[in-house]
């Protein structure tokens, strides 16, 4: 009897030891539920094959990703070792101590130069210009455009367009051209419409769309170092940009007032629009014939330039951070060392991930791999982003409240909307004592 | 009016000696539930009441500062919040009225000899068996001006149900009515089938008109259960979130729960959102209290 | 006179039957549409006019159960030939199955979440109805100081928007270690449904004549015996009706399922609408998930339909 008990205890101890050691060999990465997360799973399978460390990518639906991540951070739970988090979270997550400071790691591997500079600035650094880094750029992303090549290249259309506007019908180089093309293809009686843009104000859809116009018109949202907003967010350029966005709204398909990446991809697959704004991350679905009947005739272009020649795009995408409450931080750092290697980044791009590695982005293999990679490469060197302060969500909601009624219903004027927004933002920054610093 | 206590057991009887006393049974039956509800409801409630006087943010670990009534003051001075409340009131009235009219109407129709009544009733209950999020998602597709089947079926062309500021709230209410009329129908049906037949016969002998029979016999007798249905539907309609959030983003259809959700889980203003929740709670308790008083009055008749 | 009345009655009844049919068709149209979509090929899901005649497909259900991602390169003819039939269906849809490090096929979240939903919904329904019945009996048969206030308190637990209790609940659950456990969700849903259950059951039990129990007591039953042998059977229909509602609510709950669970106890409602991973929704898969998820509640309700009708009328009207 005693022997049996002893044996049992030994067995239990052994299995415990085994399970703890097995635990140490496992890492969990938290991300949203979308294809890039599946590609990342494939990539980390290779890490497991190399090192024996099992890495799991756990996902949650996009609409709840932010809520879930922060609930988990706040609980200081150790369920996740790393998170591939939105750029806007940097302020909130770093100030609250949820993210591990990666500055040393960053400098040691000279990531400031390995990764495309804009991605470093927006995915990794907080506060702006401080030289402190909290994430490794992982999934680069920005807004680009898809368009119907068959509509654009139809000789009859080309002729009619030239006759009407005096220049050749081609993917637009400027927002003014884009407006003309949208107007040209906007034919409600034929169930064809000009353009699909973001208008969803439930989170950051509409704001991302408007940003594309603002940045290319040479405007800014504010001074990210001093929190100065008056005269910047409501500058003349921004007023013009918002007016342009409102004008484009007039050329959208019917009911285009709560639209984000899903609806904009559908605008192409359902033959609704000539051009459609979307994140590059969602373009693979458009070149896949099973999901897009028009795959063969779908083309892509980068966000066009504004009247002053400036050309920028709104940033999407995420960096990967180590969570402070993880019990496997050392393992996580080892994983990151592997992740930033050139070969890994190259493989990441092959699997479908959008690498931020400057070297890979510049390589011709990458640029020719898909119909949209070239536009992606061009865009990733000229992206700008929203505020990343901890109160970014309040700023976002205020921007929705002020700009949505103007863009979709023509209430008030662009100037009024942006003036009111400047006042809202100023009050919010005052509330958080941002001007004392 | 309330149930009277039963005649107690004779303490000398055999049964009384064998089993638990009435008092023990009463306590054993009621106390666990009350304690359970207190732990899982009152505790979080007190917690959020505490938060509502602070600037706490659940997204950080920074200590909360006591700010007194500042949150309440800020909320009651925010014009956006007031408009959210007005929208919610309109929504509750439209949606609950619609559900009562449709639900009660269908129940009146079904309260006859109808072939396959059981099957039809069960089929009519299907809408409320779906989850709100799924209903929202599919109705968004049904309402779509370009490839939705509602416009196609009704021949409405490109009517913009969800992006017309004047229509959006009604479109959400229509979906809610579709989903929850069956609930009102079920309760009304129950009420109707309990109206003693001899009352109708008596009314028929007196040559009472249809209207008279309905308002003097049917309605008063069905009223109590209809009130219960209305109480629960009002409470739920007031809290409507998933459905409206998924269907539309018109400011004219931004219900108070949506604003609350954004404040609590996007902006992470935990303190402020707790205060808003309390304002909402006070309103719902007030409204429900009126209903319950009325319900008791109806029952007494 | 009487004959005239009967004729108009008959006409009226016919009209009622027609009206009921029309209403039923209107109410069921969206459900039919979801069900039809669950068996459609993907390219027919959003056609206008809607496709009514089509060859039903099983592929939406296959996809629903597998973790998939967009194909970036077409499979070679050899790979395609070697693949089992279900993998070919996925290939045909322009996707491939995601595998883990050892090459094992990964399942989607659906099957495990479906099981979790079953466990959580059934257990919490049993608990809520059980406790609700006892409490309702207590309130119905015994004198309780401040009865109306207690009952209002019980009702009031349904009034607070769930969004707000979520944060304190989450913190409290962390303290108890209940996050991401079946038990945690079961307790939560029991707490949700108790108020409804107590209120409904009190209505039913109030209607059971006290004389029944009193007779039993005179016969030498204890109060408990009388409760189990006399009251419970009488209240069976009411219990069935209450159970249907509690089950429905627990089965479809969304907000807490999302916040309180991670991977072990996650239920299906948050998963079903999330099939937009590639930036294009596959309506057929969403519909398949919805359809399968509807079946258990529909069956449950159908089985209890007679109880449901009789049960509701039982508690409805006070004499």
Automatic annotation (TrEMBL), chain B:
It is a multi-pass membrane protein. Gene3D superfamilies: MetI-like (1.10.3720.10). The chain crosses the membrane at residues 27-47, 91-110, 122-142, 167-192, 213-232, 275-292. It is found in: Cell membrane. Pfam families: BPD_transp_1 (PF00528). Residues 85-291 form the ABC transmembrane type-1 domain. Keywords: Membrane, Transmembrane, Transmembrane helix, Transport. Belongs to the binding-protein-dependent transport system permease family. This is Sugar ABC transporter permease. It comes from Aquibium pacificus. The lineage of its organism: Bacteria, Pseudomonadati, Pseudomonadota, Alphaproteobacteria, Hyphomicrobiales.
UniProtKB/TrEMBL annotation, chain C:
Keywords: Cell membrane, Membrane, Transmembrane, Transmembrane helix, Transport. Its main location: membrane. The chain crosses the membrane at residues 12-34, 118-139, 151-176, 182-205, 226-251, 283-304. Gene3D superfamilies: MetI-like. It is a multi-pass membrane protein. It holds the Pfam family BPD_transp_1. It comes from the Bacteria. InterPro entries: BP-dep_ABC_trans_perm, MetI-like, MetI-like_sf. The keyword DNA damage does not apply. It is found in: Cell membrane. Residues 114-304 form the ABC transmembrane type-1 domain. PANTHER family: ABC TRANSPORTER PERMEASE PROTEIN, MALTOSE TRANSPORT SYSTEM PERMEASE-RELATED. Belongs to the binding-protein-dependent transport system permease family. This is Carbohydrate ABC transporter permease. It comes from Aquibium pacificus.
């Amino acid at each position: 009897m005693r022997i049996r008990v002893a044996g049992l205890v030994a067995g239990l101890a052994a299995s415990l030891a085994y399970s703890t050691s097995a635990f140490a060999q496992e890492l969990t990465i938290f991300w949203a539920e979308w294809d890039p997360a599946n590609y990342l799973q494939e990539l980390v399978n290779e890490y497991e094959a190399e090192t024996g460390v099992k890495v799991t990518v756990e996902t949650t639906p996009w609409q709840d990703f932010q809520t879930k991540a922060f609930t988990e951070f706040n609980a200081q739970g150790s369920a996740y070792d790393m998170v591939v988090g939105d750029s806007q979270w940097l302020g909130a997550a770093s100030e609250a101590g949820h993210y591990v400071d990666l500055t040393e790691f960053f400098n040691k591997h000279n990531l400031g130069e390995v990764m495309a500079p804009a991605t470093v600035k927006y995915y990794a650094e907080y506060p702006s210009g401080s030289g402190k880094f909290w994430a490794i750029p992982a999934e680069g992303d920005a807004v680009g455009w898809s368009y119907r090549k068959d509509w654009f290249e139809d000789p009859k259309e080309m002729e009619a367009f030239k006759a009407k506007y005096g220049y050749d019908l081609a993917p637009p180089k400027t927002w003014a051209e884009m407006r003309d093309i949208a107007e040209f293809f906007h034919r409600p009686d034929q169930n064809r419409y000009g353009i699909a843009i973001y208008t969803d104000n439930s989170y950051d859809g509409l704001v991302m769309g408007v940003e594309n116009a603002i940045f290319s018109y040479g405007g800014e949202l504010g001074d990210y170092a001093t929190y100065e907003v008056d005269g910047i967010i409501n500058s003349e350029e921004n007023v013009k940009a918002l007016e342009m966005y409102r004008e484009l709204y007039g050329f959208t398909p019917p009911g285009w007032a709560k639209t984000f990446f899903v609806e904009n991809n559908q605008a192409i697959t359902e033959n609704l629009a000539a051009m459609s704004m979307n994140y590059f991350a969602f373009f693979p679905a458009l070149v896949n014939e099973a999901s897009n009947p028009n795959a063969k005739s779908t083309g892509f272009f980068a966000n066009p330039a504004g009247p002053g020649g400036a050309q920028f795009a709104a940033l999407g995408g995420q960096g990967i951070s180590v969570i402070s409450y993880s019990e496997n931080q050392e393992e996580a750092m080892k994983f990151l060392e592997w992740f930033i290697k050139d070969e890994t980044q190259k493989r990441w791009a092959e699997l479908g991930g959008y690498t931020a590695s400057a070297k890979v982005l510049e390589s011709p293999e990458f640029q020719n791999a898909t119909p949209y990679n070239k536009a992606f490469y061009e865009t990733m060197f000229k992206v700008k982003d929203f505020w990343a302060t901890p109160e970014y969500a309040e700023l976002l909601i205020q921007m929705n409240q002020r700009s949505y009624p103007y863009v979709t219903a023509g209430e008030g004027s662009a100037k009024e909307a942006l003036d009111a927004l400047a006042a809202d933002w100023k009050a919010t920054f005052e509330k958080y004592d941002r001007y004392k610093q | 009016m309330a149930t009277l206590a039963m005649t107690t057991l004779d303490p000398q009887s055999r049964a009384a000696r064998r089993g638990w006393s009435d008092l023990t049974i009463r306590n054993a039956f009621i106390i666990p539930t009350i304690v359970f509800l207190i732990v899982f409801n009152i505790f979080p409630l007190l917690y959020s009441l505490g938060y509502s006087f602070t600037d706490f943010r659940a997204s950080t670990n920074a200590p909360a500062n006591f700010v007194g009534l500042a949150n309440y003051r800020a909320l009651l001075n925010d014009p956006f919040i007031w408009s959210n409340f007005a929208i919610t009131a309109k929504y509750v009235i439209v949606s609950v009225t619609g559900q009562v009219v449709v639900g009660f109407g269908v129940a009146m129709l079904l309260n006859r000899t109808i072939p396959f009544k059981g099957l039809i009733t069960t089929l009519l209950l299907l809408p409320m068996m779906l989850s709100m999020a799924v209903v929202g998602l599919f109705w968004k597709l049904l309402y779509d001006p370009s490839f939705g089947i509602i416009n196609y079926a009704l021949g409405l062309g490109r009517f913009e149900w969800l992006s017309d500021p004047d229509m959006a709230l009604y479109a959400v209410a229509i979906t809610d009515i579709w989903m929850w009329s069956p609930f009102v129908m079920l309760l009304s049906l129950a009420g109707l089938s309990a109206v003693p037949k001899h009352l109708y016969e008596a009314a028929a002998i007196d040559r009472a008109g249809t209207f008279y029979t309905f308002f003097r016999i049917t309605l008063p007798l069905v009223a109590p259960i209809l009130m219960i249905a209305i109480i629960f539907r009002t409470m739920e309609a007031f809290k409507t979130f998933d459905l409206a959030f998924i269907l539309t983003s018109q400011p004219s259809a931004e219900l108070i729960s949506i604003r609350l959700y954004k404040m609590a889980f996007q902006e992470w203003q935990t303190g402020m959102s707790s205060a808003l929740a309390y304002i909402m709670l006070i309103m719902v308790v007030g409204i429900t209290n009126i209903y319950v008083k009325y319900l008791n009055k109806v029952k007494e008749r | 006179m009487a004959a005239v009345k009967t004729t108009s009655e008959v006409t009226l009844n016919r009209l009622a039957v027609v009206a009921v049919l029309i209403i039923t068709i209107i109410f069921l149209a969206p459900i039919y549409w979801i069900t039809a979509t669950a068996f459609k090929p993907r390219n027919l899901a959003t056609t206008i006019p809607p496709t009514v005649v089509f060859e039903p497909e099983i592929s939406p259900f296959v996809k629903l159960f597998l973790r998939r991602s967009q194909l970036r390169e077409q499979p070679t003819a050899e790979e395609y030939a070697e693949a089992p039939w279900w993998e070919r269906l996925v290939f045909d849809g322009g996707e491939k199955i995601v595998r883990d490090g050892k090459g094992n096929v990964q399942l989607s979240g659906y099957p495990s979440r479906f099981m979790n939903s079953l466990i959580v919904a059934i257990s919490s329904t049993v608990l809520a109805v059980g406790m609700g019945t006892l409490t309702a009996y207590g309130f119905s048969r015994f004198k309780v100081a401040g009865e109306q206030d207690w009952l209002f308190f019980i009702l009031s637990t349904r009034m607070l928007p769930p969004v707000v209790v979520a944060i304190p609940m989450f913190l409290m659950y962390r303290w108890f270690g209940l996050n991401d456990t079946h038990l945690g969700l079961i307790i939560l849903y029991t707490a949700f449904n108790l108020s409804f259950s107590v209120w409904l059951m009190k209505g039913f039990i109030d209607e059971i004549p006290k004389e029944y129990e009193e007779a039993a007591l005179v016969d030498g039953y204890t109060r408990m015996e009388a409760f189990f042998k006399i009251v419970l059977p009488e209240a069976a229909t009411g219990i069935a009706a209450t159970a249907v509602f509690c089950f429905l609510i627990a089965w479809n709950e969304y907000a807490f399922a999302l916040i309180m669970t991670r991977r072990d106890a996650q239920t299906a409602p948050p998963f079903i609408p999330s099939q937009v991973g590639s930036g294009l929704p596959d309506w057929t898969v969403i519909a398949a998930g919805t359809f399968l998820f509807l079946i258990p509640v529909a069956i449950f309700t159908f089985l209890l339909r007679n109880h449901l009708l009789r049960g509701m009328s039982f508690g409805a009207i006070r004499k």
